[in-house]
Amino acid sequence: MKERFFKRPRFIVFIFALVLCTVIDAARHYTQFIETVFPLEKMALLKAKMFSVFSYAGISFAEILIVAAAVFAVCAVIYLIVRFIRVRRKGRFFVNYIVFLLALVLVVRLFFLVFCGIDYARTPVKERMDLDTRPQSAQVLFDTALYIQGELNAAADTVARDQKGAFTPSRSARELTAASQEVFESYADHVHFLYGSYSTPKTVELSEVMNYLLITGFYFPYTGEANVNVRDGRLYFPYTACHEKAHQYGVMREDEASFLAFLACMESEDEDFRYSALVKAYQVLSNRLYYTNLNKYYELSKTLDKRVAFDVQLYREHTIKYVGKVSDFSENVNDTYLKSQGQESGTASYGELADLLIAWYLKTQAVAAQ
After folding, report:
1. Distance CA 44, CA 248 (A)
2. Edge-to-edge strand order for the sheet containing 217-220?
3. Which residues contact residue 310 at a Cβ distance below 8 angstroms, ignoring those fewer than 6 apart?
4. What span, in angstroms and rounded, lies between the C-alpha atoms of 348 and 53?
5. 46-64: b or e for each residue (b if 16 or more CB lie within 10 Å)?
6. Is the sign of the CA dihedral 296, 311, 163, 320 positive or negative?
């Protein structure tokens, strides 16, 4: 019997995964197709059931799998080199091994596309919530920032602080992640496009590595876990936990996840979460104002509570210690990833939270005036 050049099982898997990945990738350009074939509610319930197994332990399985994947990659290269030296039919071995690796990569990518990638193509949150995000004047931007600043200055009185006057929640990181579960789920219960029940955000042991990569948190689509950096300081920790929770619910665009995290925190009676989200919102809006109207920016800055300014300065000093070639590389990788998922502005999409905040402010003011 003549021996085949390709080993059939791995070749079939390779072709099957390649075709499906190609089809789904092409389909992501058509929102209606995605919403019909992969309805949000059914996919959310499926993911909630699939990933429930990872909710019973406090450890981050995502962290373990990422390390295991890195070890596997190194071992795979070593195995390829050693076997290539030893085998007689080097060409056949090399092709079959590469096909095996490509099949594995495509299967992993297929899983990503179905349980995460397609969510980038869903109906935007601004349409689901009837928000008008068209460009607004510098005055409207200023008015929105001023409103947020007023809420922020008031919230500065309600949170705990250390002897230096810095914002310091009395709860541990794990207690805050547990609280974020309640904060976001309470909000999601009355939002018509958020479905399912997901695991509590996990704290990451290798958070110091995340600092050098300037990563505050990440969603891992292979376990459905929301992961939060515990070494990034506490200023944005509550807000970040809710941001990653939003990703769990299938809201993958960064500005949209940030916006829903803000709304969830604002609706909560937990002052730590409200303060954290308000600082984030103020930073995004004031940064936009800085590049739009410098005079308005300085006018706004004069009325910012000194305690808030102190918290922001401490966080800036913490972050600057980790800025370098590693963080630049991480930023470029993240930018490329976001663009590959259809977010044309890449990492700049984080700043597009300002557009949603302005639209939300205008809508709430209009409702209040009625």
Report:
1. 9
2. 202-204, 225-229, 217-220
3. 165, 166
4. 35
5. ebbeebeebbeeeebbbbe
6. negative
Tokens 């769990």 label which residue?
248
Specify which residues 203 forms β-bridges with: 228
CA distance linking residue 292 with residue 287, whole number of Å: 9
Distance CA 157, CA 165 (A): 11
Which among 334, 329, 360 has a CA at the least distance from the CA of 347? 334
Place of tokens 């450890």: 59
Radius of gyration of the chain measured on its C-alpha atoms: 23
Dihedrals φ, ψ of 225, to 5°? Answer: -95, 140
Write down the H helix ranges in 202-270.
207-212, 237-248, 254-267
The DSSP line for 97-153 is HHHHHHHHHHHHHHHHHHHTGGGGGSPPHHHHTT---S---HHHHHHHHHHHHHHHH
Q: Cβ atoms within 10 A of the Cβ of 150, count?
A: 12
What pTM value is reported for the model? 0.91
Q: Write the CA distances from 291 to 178, 212, 281, 353, integer angstroms.
A: 37, 27, 16, 15
Write the pLDDT tens digit of every residue in 199-236: 999 999 999 999 999 999 999 999 999 999 999 889 99
Task: Identify the segments of the chain with pLDDT beneath 70.
Answer: 1-7, 327, 334-335, 337-338, 340, 342-351, 369-370
- Cβ–Cβ < 8 Å for 343, 254: yes
Q: What are phi and psi of 205, to 5 degrees?
A: -70, -35
Cβ atoms 64, 202 nearer than 8 A: no
Query: pLDDT tens digit string along 287-340?
Result: 999 999 999 999 999 999 999 999 999 999 999 999 887 767 777 776 676 676
